[in-house]
């Protein structure tokens, strides 16, 4: 039998390279790791995307990204675990809503429909939304905002390193769609796969309030729905110091469900670890 597949889905302003080294403990645990790239982004280097981002990136939609992820998932020989960070966490919830994947982990996920963003989140999205024709233009996050909002719990050297390696402009349309709840609706009653949602108390993009609001909506599912808080972590919890703890906690959570797939919907989280 082939190794158990896990599909990692990244979010805004980064490439699939953002999953390194976070994906390595999963390989060591025996998973077959997949890090599919978004449409448009997969055609260009980081330097090319920064220097001359194509118009197609600005108008890239939530549906286009989720469709690309679905196509990759359907090529696998069995349903994978889905792990998404930031907007990738939103995309994972949309994929679960389509009936894909055997379980999902949404790491500090962007808001699904029904979750009202707070001021910190809105202030990060406002410049992209308020620009003329912003819904079809690429939007870049400055080095300063990367350090202050995305990677604020990381040391300056790591902020600079991650910026240089994989920070790129992103889709203005996706930001608009999320802000106005277009294409982000899920029905938790349809979900039959276990789901874990996380938060970091120093996250200035997806605040703990947003993660907990998504958790409250997703708890309407009959399937297991768990919440895990990581103190001292910012939005870059998959790469900043202590990322190994995040990875191992997620692997442990999946192990608690993977052993009883035939009983999906009737698995309790370990007391004291998950809410």
UniProtKB/TrEMBL annotation:
Annotated TM spans: none
Gene Ontology molecular functions: hydrolase activity
Keyword line: Hydrolase
Residues of the AB hydrolase-1 domain: 6-241
InterPro entries: AB_hydrolase_1, AB_hydrolase_fold
Pfam families associated with the record: Abhydrolase_6
Superkingdom classification of source: Bacteria
Family matches, as Gene3D superfamilies: alpha/beta hydrolase
Name of the protein: Alpha/beta hydrolase
């Amino acid at each position: 039998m082939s190794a158990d597949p896990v599909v990692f889905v990244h979010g805004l302003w980064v490439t699939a390279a953002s999953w390194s080294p976070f994906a390595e403990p999963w390989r060591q645990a025996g998973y077959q790791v997949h890090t599919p790239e978004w449409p448009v982004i997969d055609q260009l280097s980081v330097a090319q995307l920064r220097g001359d981002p194509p118009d197609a990136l600005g108008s890239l939609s939530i549906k286009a990204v989720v469709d690309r992820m679905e196509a990759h998932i359907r090529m696998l020989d069995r349903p994978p675990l889905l792990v998404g960070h930031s907007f990738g966490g939103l995309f994972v919830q949309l994929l679960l809503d389509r009936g894909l994947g055997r379980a999902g982990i949404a790491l500090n996920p962007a808001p699904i429909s029904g979750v009202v963003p707070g001021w910190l989140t809105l202030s990060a999205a406002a410049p992209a939304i308020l620009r003329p024709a912003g819904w079809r233009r690429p939007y870049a996050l400055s080095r300063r905002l990367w350090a202050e909002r995305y990677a604020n719990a990381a040391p300056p050297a790591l902020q600079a390193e991650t910026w240089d390696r994989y920070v790129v402009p992103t889709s203005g349309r996706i930001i608009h769609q999320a802000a106005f709840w277009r294409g982000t609706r899920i029905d938790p009653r349809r979900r039959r796969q276990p789901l874990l949602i996380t938060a970091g108390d120093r996250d200035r993009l997806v605040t703990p309030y947003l993660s907990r609001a998504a958790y409250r909506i997703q708890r309407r599912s009959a399937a297991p729905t768990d919440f895990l808080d990581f103190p001292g972590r910012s939005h870059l919890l998959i790469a900043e110091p202590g990322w190994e703890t995040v990875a191992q906690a997620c692997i442990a959570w999946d192990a608690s469900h993977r052993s009883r797939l035939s009983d999906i919907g009737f698995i309790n989280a370990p007391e004291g670890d998950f809410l």
